[in-house]
Design brief:
Blueprint lengths: L3 H20 L5 H15 L9 H14 L4 H9 L1 H26 L3 H8 L4 H11 L3 H27 L16 H20 L5 H15 L9 H24 L4 H29 L3 H7 L5 H10 L4 H34 L2
Helix pairs in contact: 1-2, 2-11, 3-9, 3-10, 3-11, 3-14, 5-6, 5-12, 5-15, 6-7, 6-8, 7-8, 7-15, 8-11, 8-12, 8-13, 9-10, 12-13, 13-15, 14-15
């Protein structure tokens, strides 16, 4: 275990970097600043991030996101479910489309390229890759690099495109902050997160508290709103954790060809999904910028907090990423078996 001064140094540097970027008007400045500072320290083997930083931040973020699902908002998200399902399928198929590019550059096997290219989240794809016999380190590297790049690139681009506009159908009126109610809400979030982890729910630290807050908000019994400063602190915690992993695995780990393949395939994937988001948003008459963020090949917590920071249809964006996570858990492994059969037939000709 690192000494306490190492933890304090990491926290102070990450908070200072995040605060500086936030003061400079950088979208998602708290998270991006913490990510860059923690990544810089990790590349020098000097980062010390508490193990509870990310799960603690995810509990707060889950409650903060779930509180936006009032009954009218929940109805609007349910009405958009066909588009959300289509977006999840498009994201997976776009990953399949860029897998050959990753394979060519990295000179990897088709199995590893498949799981490295699909935007299903670091942990989800690492687990699925391991079950399929793919290279877990290569998949983790690719997913980590893409995650870091998306977190750095998407917020400023989305902020420019959004123009500060919010969509009324996905905007909720929240109750005031009540200290007693807030403590009760945080305690409940921690409990359901632990229970969710025990029963094996994917990303339980965020998802279980989010579902709790959604139920309370939709039922009109939310005891308190989650204050903005807590969400900002959660951004710092998440940025610290992501930066440590990004600096350790993404910048310094793995063969150079794998890193290059991950960056190149991520760039093409981003272009495909930005175009797909614009087209889908136009076809289904949903806010296009929110749909683009919903299809972004980043993690659910990071993209949801981006939407919250920009006040951009948070429930809709969260719905896209939640459904994609579910679809990846259900469809990616069978899809690989189908791709494997096709590749085998082509090679036998």
């Amino acid at each position: 275990m690192p000494p306490f001064p190492a933890y304090l140094r990491t926290l102070l540097l990450c908070a200072a970097a995040g605060g500086a970027l936030q003061a400079a008007g950088v979208p998602l400045g708290w998270m991006i600043g913490a990510l860059l500072a923690s990544g810089w320290l990790a590349a020098r083997r000097a980062a010390a991030v508490p193990r509870l930083a990310r799960p603690g931040g995810l509990v707060v973020l889950g409650l903060g996101l779930g509180q936006t699902f009032t009954a009218p908002v929940l109805g609007a998200v349910a009405g958009a479910l066909p588009a959300i399902l289509a977006g999840g399928l498009v994201s997976i198929l776009a990953g399949v489309a860029v897998a050959p590019l990753y394979r060519r550059i990295a000179r990897s096997d088709a199995r590893t390229a498949f799981f490295a290219a699909i935007p299903g989240g670091i942990m989800t794809m690492a687990v699925l890759a391991g079950r399929a016999g793919a290279s877990v380190p290569a998949v983790t590297l690719a997913q980590s690099l893409r995650m870091g790049l998306v977190v750095l690139v998407y917020p400023p681009l989305i902020a420019l495109a959004a123009g500060g506009a919010a969509d009324a159908a996905f905007t909720a009126a929240l109750p005031p902050v009540a200290p007693g109610g807030l403590l009760l809400l945080l305690a409940g979030g921690a409990v359901v997160a632990l229970v969710g982890e025990r029963v094996g729910i994917a990303n339980a630290a965020m998802l279980a508290p989010c579902l709790l807050a959604m139920a309370l908000s939709a039922g009109g019994v939310l005891p308190s709103a989650v204050p903005r400063w807590m969400v900002d602190a959660a951004q710092v915690a998440m940025g610290m954790s992501l930066g440590e992993r990004f600096g350790r695995e993404g910048l310094g780990g793995g063969p150079r060809r794998q890193a290059l393949a991950a960056i190149a395939s991520a760039g093409v994937l981003v272009l495909l999904l930005v175009v797909s988001g614009l087209v889908l948003g136009r076809l289904v008459d949903l806010p296009q910028v929110a749909v683009v963020l919903g299809l972004a090949p980043g993690g659910m917590p990071e993209m949801a907090v981006t939407a919250k920071a920009l006040d951009l249809a948070v429930p809709l964006v969260l719905g896209f990423h939640l459904v994609r996570t579910i679809l990846c858990n259900v469809l990616v492994s069978p899809l690989w078996l189908l791709v494997k059969v096709i590749l085998t037939r082509e090679n036998s000709r």
